[in-house]
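Hi support team,

I've been running sequence recovery on a batch of backbones for a student project. Most finish fine, but this one hangs at about 90% for roughly twenty minutes before it completes. I'm not sure whether the input is malformed or the queue is just slow. I've pasted the structure tokens below so you can try to reproduce it. Let me know if you need the job ID as well.

Thanks,
M.K.
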């Protein structure tokens, strides 16, 4: 069952005027990317070009008591940050995005995600406590969710920062709808123009 969390940047006291829409889907295992998105970071393969980590990022391929718990039903490798790692946060820098989602395993009160714009400024913040029951029970579908952030009409997402002040914040399978670069848009528009010109020329020949 899909759940619209109906959270905006204003409700969460974010710094930007443009809202970031948040939606979530319960699941154990991961219900998978949203329509139109594809996975770019999964901790089992090299990151896609333009996606990179900085800070206290760590990864595992199984649970370890007191260190990190694999997202429920997920048998692949996953990433995490922890208060036991210095720093206790990590930033995923991305291309310019219209939306991004990831699988959040065993949601806890002490975990936080900052959504960043293309200049690295925080435009939205959400903590585990905003996604009840937030009790870290990795076996319950309700504490494992795919969380999606969609940028406002005049905004683009440029990264996510993950922070944990407790045992760990586990995540996996980052997927996105990538915004084409200006050069790509230009080539696309040029292509449409050439198709249109060819169609007009063909029509003129038939009419003659």
């Amino acid at each position: 069952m899909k759940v619209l969390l109906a959270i905006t940047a204003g409700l969460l006291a974010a710094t930007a005027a443009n809202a970031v829409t948040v939606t979530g889907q319960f699941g154990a295992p991961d219900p998978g990317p949203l329509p139109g998105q594809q996975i770019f970071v999964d901790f089992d393969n090299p990151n896609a070009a333009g996606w990179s980590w900085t800070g206290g990022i760590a990864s595992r391929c199984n649970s370890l008591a007191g260190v990190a718990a694999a997202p429920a039903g997920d048998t692949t490798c996953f990433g995490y940050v922890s208060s036991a790692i210095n720093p206790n946060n990590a930033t995923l820098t991305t291309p310019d995005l219209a939306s991004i989602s990831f699988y959040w395993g065993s949601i806890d009160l002490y975990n936080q995600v900052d959504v960043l714009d293309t200049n690295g400024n925080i435009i939205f913040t959400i903590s585990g406590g905003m996604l009840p029951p937030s009790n870290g029970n990795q076996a319950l579908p309700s504490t494992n969710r795919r969380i999606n952030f969609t940028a406002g009409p005049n905004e683009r997402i440029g990264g996510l920062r993950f922070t944990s002040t407790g045992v760990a914040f586990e995540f996996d399978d980052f997927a996105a709808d990538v915004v084409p670069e200006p050069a790509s848009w230009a080539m696309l528009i040029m292509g449409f123009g050439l198709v249109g010109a060819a169609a007009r020329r063909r029509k003129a020949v038939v009419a003659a």
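--
Follow-up from support: It reproduced on our side and the slowdown came from queue contention, not your input. Confidence is low (pLDDT under 50) at residues 1-17, 183-189. No action needed from you.
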